[in-house]
């Protein structure tokens, strides 16, 4: 997730998610104590809301309370970490004892279950009252999640919170479809509390990992949220309809279910691909814009000095290979400072923009016009001759003179520029060619400006 940052506004979802941890875990603790109070005061409805329905076992209530306590953060980080580790250890012991009992047919959990006699008497008369394997696994996952959080292993902690969430979800599905095997001995209240605890545990790590990506305000997060919703709702709804109709119509409906789910998955993949493509397109467009911006001058849109040098190097290699030549023109606006000083910087900028458009119009598409300094421009004339260059340079000089800028040329007369020209036939470096053209330009300035001078070194 490196390089991925939320701004202040975008943290809102993450902060909301983290803000639910305390109230949600608090409600779970309250529920746990209510169940224990039910056993203590023999008020059955507090731990078995539906007569003869499944009850919340006292050991389950203990696990709920301890996990709930571990999830409630205080201000002292060190204290929190110790409490999280201690709570995790307690619940690991409680949940593991139940798992060992189920696997090895032992009875260890009864040694640590409060109100055990009451539980036994209810079991004897055939009432459901024990912590199921699914509940034990759910609490084990929650405890591991809490312990890992205490050790600051946040991503692993988030993973176990996610695993824990699966168990009450399966139970809910069982209750909805009337499939007892799905919920087993997990009462609907235990499932609801387990679900709330798992959501609390997940929310603790809302600022990192998969959950952070899921809550992201960007397109990826939006896709993940909608696909999670649809991905759960659609198959669940179809499954519900299947379960309701299977007993009457049997067989082929199951095939229909499988095919529909497959098509649904394909639809989700296609939707993801469309969005992915859109993101990728935007990214590539951004990259192109950046690459272009790195090589062009922001004021005039002309090629900048960097691109000019890059182009020139390639030209040198090309003319050396083909025994050809290119010509470099360096164009410098005369007394440009005067424009800035008397009419302001904006007017100066306007002159530069108009001049650059004019320069582009004066040459062929293959030639490169660049802004290589403040009021200094260059033109690389590819495959040109001295006569051709003379013609173009004169043309450029005269075109500049013809430029009319309201508020400047009508009062101060024409804008002029001096031009220095040098040739490169592959036997000079670009630095040398620029130096020769600069020397010629200096001469043009010295001789009174508004003229074209050729470097005498390379005729
Ligand atoms: N408006 C504007 N002015 C700029 C920009 N870049 C450089 N300048 C100005 O261009 C002026 C160049 O002045 P000088 O180097 O003295 O040259 P000059 O006044 O044209 O005189 P000569 O070249 O000798 O004819 C300076 O005042 C710079 O501040 C720009 O992007 N916009």
Automatic annotation (TrEMBL):
<feature type="transmembrane region" description="Helical">
    <location>
        <begin position="132"/>
        <end position="151"/>
    </location>
</feature>
<dbReference type="GO" id="GO:1902201">
    <property type="term" value="P:negative regulation of bacterial-type flagellum-dependent cell motility"/>
</dbReference>
<dbReference type="InterPro" id="IPR000160">
    <property type="entry name" value="GGDEF_dom"/>
</dbReference>
<dbReference type="GO" id="GO:0052621">
    <property type="term" value="F:diguanylate cyclase activity"/>
</dbReference>
<feature type="transmembrane region" description="Helical">
    <location>
        <begin position="253"/>
        <end position="275"/>
    </location>
</feature>
<keyword id="KW-0472">Membrane</keyword>
<keyword id="KW-1133">Transmembrane helix</keyword>
<dbReference type="InterPro" id="IPR050469">
    <property type="entry name" value="Diguanylate_Cyclase"/>
</dbReference>
<feature type="transmembrane region" description="Helical">
    <location>
        <begin position="229"/>
        <end position="247"/>
    </location>
</feature>
<feature type="transmembrane region" description="Helical">
    <location>
        <begin position="20"/>
        <end position="43"/>
    </location>
</feature>
<keyword id="KW-0812">Transmembrane</keyword>
<feature type="transmembrane region" description="Helical">
    <location>
        <begin position="55"/>
        <end position="71"/>
    </location>
</feature>
<feature type="domain" description="GGDEF">
    <location>
        <begin position="324"/>
        <end position="457"/>
    </location>
</feature>
<dbReference type="InterPro" id="IPR029787">
    <property type="entry name" value="Nucleotide_cyclase"/>
</dbReference>
<feature type="transmembrane region" description="Helical">
    <location>
        <begin position="188"/>
        <end position="208"/>
    </location>
</feature>
<protein>
    <recommendedName>
        <fullName>diguanylate cyclase</fullName>
        <ecNumber>2.7.7.65</ecNumber>
    </recommendedName>
</protein>
<feature type="transmembrane region" description="Helical">
    <location>
        <begin position="158"/>
        <end position="176"/>
    </location>
</feature>
<dbReference type="Pfam" id="PF00990">
    <property type="entry name" value="GGDEF"/>
</dbReference>
<feature type="transmembrane region" description="Helical">
    <location>
        <begin position="83"/>
        <end position="112"/>
    </location>
</feature>
<dbReference type="GO" id="GO:0043709">
    <property type="term" value="P:cell adhesion involved in single-species biofilm formation"/>
</dbReference>
<dbReference type="InterPro" id="IPR043128">
    <property type="entry name" value="Rev_trsase/Diguanyl_cyclase"/>
</dbReference>
<dbReference type="GO" id="GO:0005886">
    <property type="term" value="C:plasma membrane"/>
</dbReference>
């Amino acid at each position: 997730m490196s390089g991925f940052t939320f701004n202040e506004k975008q943290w809102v979802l993450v902060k909301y998610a983290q803000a639910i941890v305390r109230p949600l875990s608090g409600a779970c603790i309250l529920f746990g104590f209510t169940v224990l109070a039910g056993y203590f005061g023999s008020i059955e409805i507090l731990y078995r809301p539906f007569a003869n329905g499944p009850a919340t076992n006292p050991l389950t209530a203990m696990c709920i309370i301890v996990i709930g306590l571990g999830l409630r953060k205080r201000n002292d980080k060190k204290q929190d970490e110790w409490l999280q580790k201690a709570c995790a250890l307690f619940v690991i012991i409680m949940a593991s004892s139940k798992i060992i009992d189920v696997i090895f047919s032992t009875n260890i959990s009864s040694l640590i279950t409060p109100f055990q006699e009451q539980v036994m008497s209810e079991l004897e008369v055939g009432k459901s009252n024990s912590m199921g394997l699914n509940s034990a696994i759910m609490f084990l996952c929650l405890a591991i999640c809490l312990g890992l959080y205490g050790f600051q292993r946040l991503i692993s902690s988030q993973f176990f919170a996610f695993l824990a969430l699966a168990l009450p979800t399966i139970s809910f599905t069982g209750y909805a479809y009337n499939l007892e095997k799905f919920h087993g001995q997990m009462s609907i209240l235990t499932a609801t509390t387990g679900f709330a605890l798992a959501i609390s545990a997940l929310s603790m790590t809302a600022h990192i990992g998969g959950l952070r990506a899921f809550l992201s305000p960007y397109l990826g997060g939006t896709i993940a949220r909608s696909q999670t919703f649809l991905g759960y709702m659609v198959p669940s709804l179809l499954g519900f309809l299947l379960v309701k109709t299977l007993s009457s119509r049997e067989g082929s409906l199951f095939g229909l279910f499988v095919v529909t789910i497959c098509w649904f998955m394909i639809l989700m993949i296609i939707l993801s691909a469309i969005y992915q493509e859109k993101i990728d397109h935007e990214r590539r467009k951004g990259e192109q814009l950046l690459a272009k911006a790195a090589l062009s001058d922001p004021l005039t849109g002309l090629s900048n000095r960097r691109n000019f040098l890059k182009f020139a190097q390639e030209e040198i290699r090309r003319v050396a290979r083909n025994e050809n030549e290119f010509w470099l023109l360096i164009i410098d606006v005369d007394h440009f400072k005067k424009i800035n000083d008397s009419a302001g910087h904006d007017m100066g900028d306007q002159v530069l923009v108009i001049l650059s458009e004019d320069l582009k119009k004066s040459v062929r598409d293959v030639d490169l016009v660049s802004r290589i300094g403040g009021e200094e421009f260059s033109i690389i004339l590819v495959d040109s001759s001295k006569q051709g260059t003379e013609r173009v340079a004169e043309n450029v000089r005269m075109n500049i003179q013809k430029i009319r800028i309201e508020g400047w040329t009508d009062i101060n007369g024409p804008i002029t520029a001096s031009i220095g020209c040098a040739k490169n036939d592959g036997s000079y470096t670009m630095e040398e060619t620029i130096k020769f053209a600069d020397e010629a330009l200096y001469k043009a300035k010295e001789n009174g400006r508004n003229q074209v001078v050729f470097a005498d070194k390379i005729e």
